[in-house]
Amino acid sequence: MSDDPWGARQASAAPEGWIPATENGWGALVVWAAGPLNVVRVPAAPRNRETAVVTRYSDGREAREPSRLTDADLESIDDDIDSYLAEAGLPPRPRGFDWYLRPPGAAAAGPDAFWAAVWEATTAGLPHDGLHPLRLRVAAAAAVDRLYRS
Questions:
Q1: 107 contact partners, CB below 8 Å, separation of at least 6
Q2: Neighbours of 93 (CB within 10 A)
Q3: What are 50-109's pLDDT values in tens digits?
Q4: CB 140: neighbour CB atoms within 10 A?
Q5: DSSP states of 139-150 as a string?
Q6: Which of 67, 87, 96, 143 is the 20 to 30 Å CA partner of 59?
Q7: Cβ atoms 131, 44 nearer than 8 A
Q8: Helices vs strands, H then E, count in the chain
Q9: For residues 29-57, b (16+ Cβ closer than 10 Å) or e, as one string?
Q10: Is the pLDDT score of 2 beyond 60?
């Protein structure tokens, strides 16, 4: 890791074929684990404020109700990501960016396959109660390193 774990190259657009990081603590942790050489950050476009509230009933029915995220909601999402990173012993990531990962050879099948491979490789050796961000930090760093070396 460099002295600045979030010191990824900044671009005006994501390179073609690069994998978007999920907008949650896990996605940010994987970006950190991949390191600046495998990551690019792009100034965030206006965020999609449309979402849906999904209610699942015990009989299997599902009700979807459109909802709109407020500025406070979006700020809260960023705060939650920073809290997750703090639990992992990492500094907060710079806000206002979308993050993209260079696809390693194992990600040829696309973003879903990449995220599944990273999760499987990270959690394979952890005990059931090992999903704390600090434990995931160490395991994710090793898993991502293996993916980029293969």
A1: 19, 113, 114, 117, 147
A2: 21
A3: 888 889 999 999 999 998 888 888 899 999 999 999 999 999 999 989 999 999 875 567
A4: 23
A5: HHHHHHHHHHH-
A6: 67
A7: no
A8: 4, 6
A9: bbbbbbbbebbbbbeeeeeeeeeeeeeee
A10: no
Structure tokens at 98: 């979308």
Residue whose structure tokens are 């603590």: 25
Residues comprising the chain, all counted:
150
Within 8 A by CB and 6+ apart from 129, the residues are none
Let me know the angle formed at the C-alpha of 124 by 78 and 22, rounded to the nearest 5 degrees. Answer: 25
Amino acid in position 35: G
CA distances from 55 to 24, 48, 59, 68, 74 (A): 21, 21, 12, 16, 21
